Amino acid sequence: MNTTCAIFLLSALAVALAGNAAAADRPDVNYDEAKVGELTLPDPLTFSNGKPVKNVKAWQQKRRPEIVKLFETHMQGRSPGKPAALSFQQIETDPQALGGKATRKQITVYFTADKTGPSMDILLYLPNQAIKPVPVFLGPNFGGNHAVNTDPGIKLSQRWMRDDKEKTVVNNRATEKARGKEAGRWPIETILDRGYAVATIYYGDLEPDSTNGWTQGIRGYYLAQQGKTEFAPDDWGAIGAWAWGLSRAMDYLETDRAIDASRVAIMGHSRLGKTALWAGAQDERFAIVISNDSGEGGAALSRRWFGETVGIMNKSFPHWFNDNYKRYSTNVPALPVDAHLLLALMAPRPVYVASAEEDRWADPRGEFLAAKNAEPVYRLFGLEGLGVSEMPGTNQPVGKTIGYHIRTGKHDVTDYDWAQYLNFADRHFNKTKR
Ligand code: GCU
Question: Which stretches of 314-421 are assigned E, i.e. beta strand?
Answer without folding.
Answer: 351-356, 398-399, 402-407
